[in-house]
TrEMBL record:
<keyword id="KW-0808">Transferase</keyword>
<feature type="transmembrane region" description="Helical">
    <location>
        <begin position="228"/>
        <end position="252"/>
    </location>
</feature>
<dbReference type="InterPro" id="IPR050256">
    <property type="entry name" value="Glycosyltransferase_2"/>
</dbReference>
<protein>
    <submittedName>
        <fullName>Glycosyltransferase family 2 protein</fullName>
    </submittedName>
</protein>
<dbReference type="Pfam" id="PF00535">
    <property type="entry name" value="Glycos_transf_2"/>
</dbReference>
<keyword id="KW-0472">Membrane</keyword>
<feature type="transmembrane region" description="Helical">
    <location>
        <begin position="264"/>
        <end position="286"/>
    </location>
</feature>
<keyword id="KW-0812">Transmembrane</keyword>
<dbReference type="InterPro" id="IPR029044">
    <property type="entry name" value="Nucleotide-diphossugar_trans"/>
</dbReference>
<keyword id="KW-0328">Glycosyltransferase</keyword>
<keyword id="KW-1133">Transmembrane helix</keyword>
<feature type="domain" description="Glycosyltransferase 2-like">
    <location>
        <begin position="5"/>
        <end position="166"/>
    </location>
</feature>
<dbReference type="InterPro" id="IPR001173">
    <property type="entry name" value="Glyco_trans_2-like"/>
</dbReference>
């Protein structure tokens, strides 16, 4: 019989993680699906690990993975996928914002032969208008970069073992899971779901961390900003040509303009264009630096299967 692994990244989720495990146990047992829950504690500062340990005592199908510190959700998802042993692997948030019932529909689609089943948000829940608009802008860029429509994409998805293995075989450290699962291809279908409100605990995303997330992922996935640098350079060059010709004409006609304002404007414009370009290029270099260091994506301090400590040297 096939087995489903559900990967649940958890960071400071002491209020939700136990409940999520119980709800998933009920829903999956009722549907008669053989499963394991791979809960990854992403270096939580609260009692999340204690809650995962408790969940493991209640349900032998829980595999708890404890990070040595916070490595971020992408790393937690990757670690969970690496530990998962199922024939099919689902990834979902452990705050019950992704409805467990949708998991069952996804599973049935997998049984029908679909290899990647993407969860698509029906609406973006109770987010602010600014948040929705900037998300729309970001996913517009990402859709162009990946060639896949990513509007309302989410981290809620189910993947066949084949797709999981191909994602795990990708060597890059800066991975954008949401887009990578489309990038690997395979027979893909989509399931809409309604984002639920968070019952307890807090969202880990501040506006600033979202901006950083957007920029990092654009850089991880596309070289479009570098082309933007070229365009800015080209535009500056075009303007300079016009200005040069204009100034020369003025000069030979004996009407050379007074210099200060023009000089200042040109200097500042070019200066800022150069700084902006350097910043963008610098960001790519920083990412290349991170990649060539080949550091592990995460460090695990403990792994529990049910009550048993099954930690082995990894990476
Ligand atoms: N998460 C994580 N590491 C982090 C931040 C978040 O593993 O550094 C997990 C978190 O526990 C949750 C999921 O990622 O299961 C989504 O986080 P959150 O609910 O804060 O995001 P939102 O639903 O507000 O987009
Ligand atoms: Mg959430």
């Amino acid at each position: 019989m096939s087995r489903l692994s559900v990967v649940l990244p958890a960071y400071n989720e002491e209020l939700m993680v136990g409940k999520t495990c119980r709800v998933l146990h009920e829903v999956l047992a009722e549907a008669g699906i053989s499963y394991e829950l791979v809960v990854v504690d992403d270096g939580s500062k609260d009692k999340t690990w204690e809650e995962i340990t408790k969940a493991g005592e209640e349900d032998g199908n829980v595999l708890g993975v404890h990070f040595s510190r916070n490595f971020g959700k992408e790393a937690a998802v990757y670690a969970g996928m690496a530990q998962a042993t199922g024939d099919v692997v689902a990834v979902m948030d452990c705050d019950l914002q992704h409805p467990p019932e949708t998991l069952i529909s996804m599973y049935h689609l997998w049984e029908q032969g679909w290899e990647v089943i993407e969860g698509v948000k029906k609406s973006r829940g109770t987010e602010s208008l600014l948040h929705k608009e900037s998300a729309g802008f970001f996913y517009g860029i990402m859709s162009k970069a990946t060639g896949v429509n990513m509007q309302n994409a989410s981290d809620f998805k189910m993947m066949d073992r084949k797709a999981v293995n191909s994602i795990l075989s990708m060597p890059e450290r800066n991975m954008f899971f949401r887009a990578t699962s489309s990038w690997v291809g395979f027979k893909t279908t989509y399931v809409e779901f309604e984002v639920r409100d968070r019952e307890a605990g807090q969202s880990k995303w501040s506006t600033w961390s979202l901006i950083k997330y957007a920029f990092t992922n654009i850089v991880a996935f596309t070289t479009a900003p570098l082309q933007f640098v070229t365009v800015v350079g080209g535009a500056c060059f075009g303007c300079s040509l016009i200005l040069i010709i204009y100034s020369l004409v003025q000069f030979f006609a004996g009407r050379a303009v007074e210099g200060y304002t023009t000089t200042l404007i040109v200097l500042l414009l070019i200066g800022s264009a150069i700084m902006l370009s350097l910043g963008i290029i610098g960001y790519y270099i920083a990412k290349i630096y991170e990649e060539v260091k080949r550091r592990p994506r995460y460090i695990i301090s403990q792994i529990l299967r049910g009550k048993e400590d099954v930690y082995q040297e990894v990476n």
